[in-house]
Model the fold of this input.
Amino acid sequence: MLQTHHRSSISQHSRSVSHFINEADELSDSELVKQVNDVKQQIRVLALENEILEKTIMRLDPSLMHGIQQALEFAAKMQSGSSLNVNSFVKSTSKLGMESVTSPSRMLTSPSKVSARRVESSGKFSSTVIFGTGPRVNVLERSELVTLEMEFLINNLEKARSKAAKQHALLKAQLEEIGLREVEIKKSSDLFETEVIVEGWDKIAQRIPAEIWIRFMTEWVKMIDGQIGKLRLRTSTLNTQYSKFKGQIRVKAELSESLRPVDFDKLKIENNECAEIIDMKIQQLAELKKMTGDANLNLTIHKKLMMEQNGYLTNVLKTIKLKHKQTKELDKEKDVIQVQADSLAQRLDDVRKVRLAYEVPDVMDYVNIKSEITDLKNNIKVLENRAHIQRIALTSLNKKLNLMMN
Done:
């Protein structure tokens, strides 16, 4: 009877396929393309639903997935037109423990009872799974499955993000540590090369003395010990801060657990009071801004007036300095003029004295002095002519002497 049922189902499946092929032959190209696209969309939706169902079953009760792979392979072989023995497949699935499938909503609500609720006939289940006449999943159950799967995926995503953030922080800290180590190693290498290899080289012995090496290593170890001490203090400080923050978080968590509706009402009242205070402060701030604007305007006006007064004062100071300078120059000119007046007064006195002591000479004395002066001038001219003649003679003698020597 079971075989007859399977054969009738197979014949119905083949007739439906042939009917679909005949309908496809009657369709036009655009309708056929549209129908193919609709079928592809349905296939994608069914694949997504199957994936969600599989993940849900694997998460709740993985034992229900035994034999599903064989059922899928059997369905694929039947679809390809190959003839298989259904009874052999039913026996194989019954051996693997496929006894029942419950509703997804019941499976989600009570996953521990899934294995307890079994169906007596395995052949009936196998035939229903293979030919699509098993238990159906309605829209409400699908939405529940999708919602639970989304929540599960969101929780996994949050966990992955948290883990990735911690890993990123750890890797970043490790990179920073590696960078600091690289800088310190390079600095130590440069210091070693400068103080030991370059400056510590003994030109006479052609080697580096051990004392320089030991002194450098001792100083370097002291410096490293100091840095390690600073890092330990920094680490202890950070640990103290971390413990403090952790305690604060724990206290806040305890306070959040012991909260009551009255606390929220109290907090709401306090928030309202704070909001009123903030509004009052905002009004006061607006008034202060207005007063500040008026004060700034007055300050600008007075500043402009002050700048004008400063300009006038600067001009007055410049005029005073110029007058002082002119006064100093006039004082200097006064002193010079006074000196000149004194010298002129002295000369005037001298002239007056000379004038008072001057006597008019006799005419004959003047004539005699004048004739003597004339004679002296004539004698000077005669002597000048003789000197000129002698210079000419000397020049001619020098020329003759040069000719004789040549």
User: Anything to note?
Assistant: The radius of gyration is 63 Å. The first helix runs from residue 2 to 26.
